[in-house]
Each structure stands twice: as C-alpha cells, then as structure tokens.
Design a protein that fits this description.
Elements: H1 5-17, H2 20-27, H3 31-45, E1 50-51, E2 58-59, H4 61-83, E3 93-97, H5 99-116, E4 122-126, E5 140-141, E6 152-158, E7 161-166, H6 168-174, E8 188-190, H7 200-206, E9 218-220, H8 223-231, E10 237-240, H9 241-249, E11 254-255, E12 260-261, E13 266-271, H10 278-289
Parallel strand pairs: 3-4, 3-5, 8-9
Antiparallel strand pairs: 1-2, 6-13, 7-10, 7-11, 7-12
Length: about 290
C-alpha cells in the first residue's frame, strides 16, 4: 500500500480544523471517514501523527513536522486555483496535472501566465492518478505516465531527463564520486501504481550497475512528499529536471550526477474528435513554450 494523496489532504485538514469532526464538516465527509484516513496514513508511515488522548486531538512531533512540510504547499495550490477559477469572457480552461507538477512547476509560473493572458480563466485539477485521463471534464491533461487511449491527441510537453538530487548538507556529507556510490546511500523511491516511470533500479541499470536485490529506502506514490523528504535531507531522490530545476538553481537541492534522458517524454493530451477551443489552444502553447 502506498501513501494516498487523499489521506495526506485529510490529515492537513485535521491539523488546520483542530478536530476530526470539524475536518469532516469542511471536507463534507463523515467523521469516521476522516479518522480512518488518518489512521491509514499513520499505519503506512509507521508513526503516530495525531494524539487522540486529550479532549481535543493534537499533533505529535512527527505530525507537526509533516504538517509543516505539506500544509503550505496545499494552501498555495488551492489559493492559486481559486484565484484562477473564473473568467469574465469565457468558460475557464481546465488543466489536469499531478500535485507535484502543480506545486513545483506550474505554481511559480502562474503570475507570468496571468500577465500574458489576463482574461483567460484557468481551472487546475490536481490528481496523482492517470485513471481519468480523457474521461473527466478537463480540456487538457499532463499525465504521470504513458497513456495510450483512443480519441486523444498528444503534444510533447517536456522530455524526460532525470538527475539524482539531495539537500546540500546531505550532498556534502555523501561526497558522491560515481554512480556506484549511490548504492550505499539512503534512497527515496517513487512508487507509481497507475503509470510506472523511471525508477532507481532502471537508473543503475542504465549506468551498467547490476542490482540483484530490492533497494532499501523510503517509498511513496506522492512525488511532492518525496521531494519534501529530499529537501529535508532525508535521502537522495531522482529528480525530473523540469520539476527540480528551480530547486537546483536556488541551491535548495544539489545534483549528484549527470542527467540522463529517456525516450519517454511527458505529453499534453487533448481530445482529437473536435478542435481545441481557442483558449485551450493558447494554454497548450504556453505550456509547451514556457521556460
């Protein structure tokens, strides 16, 4: 079982609302559903996040650290999405992307988008599954993996280039001198249930290094959480360069090897049965050309 984005969002809501009942009301679900989601998250992470012993639940030290890492990211995404939901001239363009792409790539570029297209409304849908690509009400999708379904047109968004990254203190401590040295360091693994992409075993294989047994390390299916772990100096992650570029430029992450490029680029998908609305075509062009 991998960490669910729904469990993480539910936990953040409990931390912000103060009680399970208040969180349930905000999420429009039952109180047992909230309690169950937090319990599943605690079981998956093997630590207690919420102390239920008092009159009101309180965060444990581990829960406080997780909330400090996650809460601001969700607030920023939600605030940016809310600010762009409506347009005075047309129905908003709907774009479906992963949480990590929204947080680390799209969000910093939204001010420039609004400067270029002040009257174009944008509705951002965050999801960490490719299950609904082509079947929900979005105009455009940037899926996590390769999606080969009838009725969809694909335009390349970014090539897939990856580089091992770590926080600056951990990078200095590890002092990596070659690919083999990464076999001995704490690795952060992304587990994609719906659309497998590049993994650490593949990275070692591409460098001619045999990996005959499972590699140890932290595992999650939430790439935002994985990058937060890297930023917190907890291990080495494989970073897609279009997502980690600004973190590398700012020095918050450090590259530990040369990038490697695959033949599996990220794509922007749209329906091919009818021409894109002009607004959606403008957004797709901006996504492709934005640096």
């Amino acid at each position: 079982m991998a960490v669910s984005d729904r469990w993480l969002r539910t936990f953040v809501m409990v931390a912000e609302a103060g009680t399970f009942s208040a969180a349930a009301k905000r999420l429009d679900v039952s109180q047992p559903a909230v309690s169950h989601a937090v319990a599943r998250l605690e079981k998956e992470l093997s630590c207690r996040l919420v102390d239920r012993g008092g009159r009101r639940p309180s965060l444990t030290p581990e829960g406080q650290r997780l909330y400090e890492q996650l809460g601001g990211s969700y607030d920023q995404i939600d605030a940016a999405v809310d600010a762009l939901r409506s347009s005075p001239s047309s129905r908003p363009v709907s774009l479906s992307v992963s949480t990590s792409l929204a947080n680390f790539w799209l969000l910093p570029r939204l001010p420039e988008f609004k400067r270029q297209y002040p009257d174009l409304g944008l509705r951002v849908i965050t999801t960490d599954s490719d299950a609904n690509v082509g079947s929900d009400d979005a105009d455009l999708w940037i899926p996590l993996g390769s999606v080969d379904r009838a009725g969809l047109e694909a335009v390349e968004f970014r090539s897939e280039r990856l580089v091992p990254v770590a926080g600056p203190s951990l990078a200095a401590e590890l002092n990596i001198t070659g690919p083999e040295a990464l076999l001995e360091v704490p690795l952060l693994h992304l587990e994609e249930r719906y659309a497998p992409r590049y993994t650490w075993p593949t990275w070692f294989e591409d460098h001619g290094i045999d990996v005959s047994s499972p590699l140890p390390g932290y595992r999650t299916n939430d790439y935002s959480l994985l990058l937060q772990a890297a930023l917190e100096e907890q291990g080495v992650a494989l970073g897609w360069d279009h997502i980690v570029a600004r973190l590398l430029d700012s020095g918050r992450l450090v590259a530990l090897a040369e990038p490697i490029e695959t033949n599996n680029p990220f794509m922007i998908l749209s329906r091919d049965k009818a021409p894109l609305r002009p607004e959606a075509a403008l957004l797709r062009e901006w996504l492709v050309l934005s640096d």
